[in-house]
Design brief:
Number of strands: 11
CATH class: Alpha Beta
CATH architecture: 4-Layer Sandwich
Radius of gyration: 16 Å
Strand order of the largest sheet: 4-5-8-9-11-10
Number of helices: 3
CATH topology: Purple Acid Phosphatase, chain A, domain 2
Helix content: 10-25%
Order of helices and strands: EHEEEEEEHEHEEE
Length: 185
């Protein structure tokens, strides 16, 4: 199960406990900051709480292999005010470059490419954005064109009763999963 951000953490915990399947997520712009604070001052044996919903895996800036699929994630939206999980185009470009390096390194080791890209914001140009907050990131388009995952899923764009059609970037299906979707790969 994948979450593209902005869902209450207790809801994600409920889903993972009821369905008993892995739940991977990226944070959205309305989620709290999940960066671990500097805890180097604490004793080594101290119990350090992991930020985020219990039982779920934050894949922001990471690549994971789950049930035969290689999945990578980047959370956050375009910066439009002060707050967590918001980035400028250049900031997300640097985050995407780091993820690209990790994907290439894993591909060299395992000989496999990326299967699914999970983001909060859409790739630039695929959403019918009415404002700068929702236009998406150029860096996501570059990742999709470079690695050609089978699927790219994003949230952040609320359709408010409309069905948003799937888009394509090359051979990659780009799907807005708001409010929810069941997708077969």
């Amino acid at each position: 199960m994948l979450s593209c951000g902005d869902l209450p953490f207790d809801y994600l915990e409920y889903l993972v406990s009821r369905l008993d399947v892995p739940l991977l997520y990226v944070p959205g712009n309305h989620d709290p900051n999940l960066q671990s604070p500097d805890l180097s001052w604490m004793p080594l044996r101290a119990e350090v709480p992991i930020p985020g919903p219990a039982g779920c895996d934050n894949i922001d800036g990471r690549i994971v292999d789950v049930r035969g699929l290689r999945i990578a994630g980047l959370g956050g939206s375009l910066r439009y005010k002060e707050g967590a999980n918001q980035y400028t185009q250049p900031q997300m470009g640097r985050r995407a470059l780091r993820l690209e390096f990790l994907i290439r390194l894993k591909r060299l080791r395992a000989g496999r490419k990326l299967d699914v890209l999970v983001t909060h914001a859409p790739p630039f140009g695929v959403a019918e954005a009415k404002d700068a907050t929702h236009v998406g990131f150029v860096a996501f388009v570059r990742l999709i064109r470079s690695f050609q995952p089978v699927l790219a899923v994003h949230g952040h764009i609320h359709a408010f009763g409309r069905t948003i059609p799937e888009r394509r970037i090359g051979a990659t299906r780009v799907v807005n999963v708001v409010p929810s979707r069941i997708i077969e790969i």
